Automatic annotation (TrEMBL):
It is an enzyme of class 4 (lyase). This is Phosphogluconate dehydratase. Binds 1 [4Fe-4S] cluster. It holds the Pfam family ILVD_EDD_N. One of its GO terms (biological process) is D-gluconate metabolic process. Residues 403-598 form the Dihydroxy-acid/6-phosphogluconate dehydratase C-terminal domain. [4Fe-4S] cluster binds at residues 153, 220. Transmembrane segments: none annotated. Belongs to the IlvD/Edd family. It comes from Sphingomonas metalli. PROSITE patterns: ILVD_EDD_1, ILVD_EDD_2. Residues 66-375 form the Dihydroxy-acid/6-phosphogluconate dehydratase N-terminal domain. Its EC number is 4.2.1.12.
Length: 607
C-alpha cells in the first residue's frame, strides 16, 4: 500500500475503534436475534404474502432468500425513470435461482437540477435523511434476507446506505440504471448559460440548449454528484463490477441487473458465502471511496456524504483525512466539469475498470475488502456480452489519454481537494478544474444572505470588479444547505471578463462546480447552534479584504484582530416557510456540522 494511504487508513481505524466496535456488535446481535421471516406469526406472514400470488407458495415454504427491493423510482427524474420495470424483471430473475423478491418500499428522489435556485432546494440535503428513514421503514418488517437498493442520484445513494447500514447484517447490492446517451456537450451547454447570464441569448435559446443536454432517460452525463455516487459504489465493491456507466436499455445493462439479483441471492446468511453490508462497508472501503473521489475529480458534495455514510457504519472520517489523501492521490481522469468529455466518453476510454486497476496496481486503494462480487481485482475488468452471455474482460490501456491516464502519467500529481483554515473558519475547495493562477484570490468582500440577491447585484453591474462573493446563512441549520449552482454562470462571466473572483459560503456548491474558486461548507456556519455562537463567516462586512489561498490552505479576512474580535455577528434572516420548508425545522435544528455529514438523523441517533 501507498504509505500515506495506509497511514490515513490506520488513523481512521484508531479513531473509529469504539464506534466501529459498537456497530459490529449491533449487526452481530441483529444477525443472531433479529426477527426472521419463518418466526413471524401466521397473521403477520399472511399480511406479508397477501400482495403476491405467483410467489406465495414459495414464500410460505421458505425455500430461498426473499429479497427486499427499495426503489427510488419516479418518472420526473430521468436517472430514476429507468427503474419503472425493474421490480417485475427482478422477480423473474430471482425465481431463476430459487429466490423471491418483493418491493419493500419506495424512497423519495428529488432532483437538484429541477429545484436549483428555488425554495424546494432547501429540502434537498435533508431529503437524504428522509431517504435513510424511509429505507429503515422499508426494511423493518423482518421479511427479507437481503435487499436490492435502486438509486443513483445526489442524496439518494447516500440516504439509501445510511438507512440500509442499520440493517448491516443483511447482504445488499446497489443496482444502478446508467447514464443517458450523450446530447449537447456539457461545455456548450455551460457556454449558453453564461451567454444567457450576460443577456446575449434569450430564454428560448437557453431552454433549447438545456433540453439538448438533458434529453432522455438515464443519469445526467456530467461528472457531478450522481455519477460520483456510482464511482464510489464501484470502488467500494457494492455494485456488480463495471456496471456504473452502462447505458439504459441495452442488453449489457439488463444482464448486469440480472447478475446483481442472482449474486445477491448467493451471498445470504444461509449459504457459505455470507457477505453482509455492514462488513463490506468497513474503514478500508471508505478510504477506497475517498481515493476514488480524488483520483477522478468527483463532486464536493461527498465531503458531506462520505462522512455520513461512514458514520452510519460506526466509522469516523474527517476533512483532514481527505486533505492528506489528496496530497498522495494523483488525478487520473478528466470528465466535465474537470475536462471536456462526459461520462459516456469516460466509459468508452476504460471507465471505472481502468481507474480501479490503476489504483490497485499503484497501491492506492485496498484490494482486500469484502465486495459483493468476487475480489476488488474483479472490479478492474470490463463487462461485455459474448455469445449471449455476460463476461468480464481485461480492460487494457486507456482508450483516450485526454480523458483517462495511468497513475504513472497523471493529469495532476494530487487529487485537487484542499482544506482551508483561518479566521473565517474551516472550509473545503476543489481546485482540479480551477486554473493554477486562480488558486489564490485576494479581493474585497461583497456579503449576501441570499443567492438571489447575488444574481440581482450581478445584473445591476455591482460586481464588475475583483470580488470575493460571500453568501452566508446557507448552512444546514439555517436553511438546509442548498446548492448555489445558480451562481456558477454569473461568477464565470465575471472571471471571463478578467476579474479575480471567488465564492466563500457556508452552503454547498453543485457537484458540477468548476472553474471559479469556491470555498464551501464553511464551518462553523453563520447561524448559531444549540451549543454555541455562529461561525466567524457571520462577522464579515462589505469591503473586508478576503484571501482565499488554496496553495497555503488558508481562508482569512485580512482585518485587524482587535476589530475582528470586537465585531457583533450579523443578524440571521427570518426562517423561511412555504414549499414545505417549515416541515423540516426539526432536521435543521438537530443537524450537526458539515464535516460530520450535516445530518440530523445521525446526530440524534447516537451513531
Amino acid at each position: 500500500m501507498n504509505p500515506q494511504v495506509q497511514a490515513v487508513t490506520d488513523r481512521i481505524v484508531a479513531r473509529s475503534r469504539g464506534s466501529r466496535g459498537a456497530y459490529l456488535d449491533l449487526i452481530a446481535r441483529e444477525a443472531e436475534t433479529a426477527i426472521r421471516r419463518p418466526a413471524l406469526g401466521c397473521a403477520n406472514l399472511a399480511h406479508a404474502y397477501a400482495g403476491t400470488e405467483e410467489d406465495r407458495e414459495r414464500l410460505r415454504a421458505d425455500a430461498g432468500m426473499n429479497i427486499g427491493i427499495v426503489t427510488a423510482y419516479n418518472d420526473m427524474l430521468s436517472a430514476h425513470a429507468v427503474y419503472y420495470r425493474y421490480p417485475e424483471q427482478m422477480k423473474v430473475w430471482a425465481r431463476e435461482v430459487g429466490a423471491t423478491a418483493q418491493v419493500a418500499g419506495g424512497v423519495p428522489a428529488m432532483c437538484d437540477g429541477v429545484t436549483q435556485g428555488y425554495p424546494g432546494m432547501e429540502l434537498s440535503l435533508f431529503s437524504r435523511d428522509t431517504i435513510a428513514l424511509s429505507t429503515a421503514v422499508a426494511l423493518s418488517h423482518g421479511t427479507f434476507e437481503g435487499a436490492a437498493l435502486l438509486g443513483i442520484c445526489d442524496k439518494i445513494v447516500p440516504g439509501l446506505l445510511m438507512g440500509a447500514l442499520r440493517f448491516g447484517h443483511l447482504p445488499m447490492v446497489l443496482i444502478p440504471g446508467g447514464p443517458m446517451p450523450s446530447g449537447l456537450p456539457n461545455k456548450a451547454k455551460a457556454a449558453v448559460r453564461e451567454q444567457f447570464a450576460e443577456g446575449k441569448v434569450g430564454r428560448e435559446e437557453l431552454l433549447e440548449a438545456e433540453i439538448g443536454a438533458y434529453h432522455s432517460k438515464g443519469t445526467c452525463t456530467f461528472y457531478g454528484t450522481a455519477n460520483t455516487n456510482q464511482m464510489m459504489m464501484e470502488v467500494m465493491g457494492l455494485h456488480m463490477p463495471g456496471s456504473a456507466f452502462v447505458n439504459p436499455g441495452t442488453k449489457l445493462r439488463q444482464e448486469l441487473t440480472r447478475a446483481a439479483v442472482q449474486r445477491l441471492a448467493a451471498i445470504g446468511g444461509r449459504g457459505d458465502d455470507y457477505r453482509p453490508l455492514g462488513r463490506c462497508v468497513d474503514e478500508k472501503a471508505i478510504v477506497n471511496a475517498a481515493v476514488g473521489l480524488l483520483a477522478t475529480g468527483g463532486s464536493t458534495n461527498h465531503l458531506l456524504h462520505l462522512p455520513a455514510i461512514a458514520r452510519a457504519a460506526g466509522i469516523v472520517i474527517d476533512w483532514e483525512d481527505m486533505d492528506r489523501l489528496s496530497a498522495a492521490v494523483p488525478l487520473i481522469a478528466r470528465v466535465y466539469p474537470n475536462g471536456s468529455a462526459d461520462v459516456n466518453g469516460f466509459e468508452a476510454a476504460g471507465g471505472m475498470p481502468f481507474v480501479i486497476r490503476e489504483l490497485l496496481d499503484a497501491g492506492l486503494i485496498h484490494g482486500d475488502i469484502l465486495t459483493v462480487a468476487g475480489s476488488m481485482a474483479d472490479y478492474g475488468r470490463k463487462p461485455a456480452i459474448e455469445d449471449e452471455a455476460l463476461v468480464w474482460r481485461d480492460v487494457g490501456a486507456s482508450g483516450d489519454e485526454t480523458i483517462l491516464r495511468p497513475v504513472a502519467t497523471p493529469f495532476s500529481p494530487d487529487g485537487g481537494m484542499r482544506i482551508l483554515q483561518g479566521n473565517i473558519g474551516r472550509a473545503c475547495i476543489k481546485v482540479s478544474a480551477v486554473e493554477r493562477e486562480r488558486w489564490v484570490v485576494e479581493a474585497p468582500a461583497r456579503v449576501f444572505d441570499d443567492q438571489l440577491d447575488v444574481l440581482e447585484a450581478f445584473r445591476a453591474g455591482e460586481l464588475e470588479r475583483d470580488v470575493v462573493v460571500v453568501v452566508r446563512f446557507q448552512g444546514p441549520r439555517a436553511n438546509g444547505m442548498p446548492e448555489l449552482h445558480k451562481l456558477t454562470p454569473p461568477l464565470g462571466v465575471l472571471q471571463n471578463r478578467g476579474f479575480r473572483v471567488a465564492l466563500v459560503t457556508d452552503g454547498r456548491m453543485s457537484g458540477a462546480s468548476g472553474k471559479v474558486p469556491c470555498a464551501i461548507h464553511c464551518s462553523p456556519e453563520a447561524l448559531p447552534g444549540q451549543t454555541g455562537a455562529g461561525g466567524p463567516i457571520g462577522l464579515i462586512r462589505d469591503g473586508d479584504l478576503i484571501r482565499v489561498d488554496a496553495v497555503a490552505g488558508t481562508l482569512d479576512a485580512l482585518v485587524d484582530a482587535a476589530e475582528w474580535d470586537a465585531r457583533t455577528p450579523a443578524e440571521p434572516p427570518a426562517a423561511a416557510s412555504g414549499m414545505g420548508r417549515e416541515l423540516f425545522g426539526l432536521f435543521r435544528g438537530a443537524s450537526d456540522e458539515a464535516e460530520k455529514g450535516a445530518s440530523a438523523v445521525l446526530a440524534g441517533g447516537g451513531m
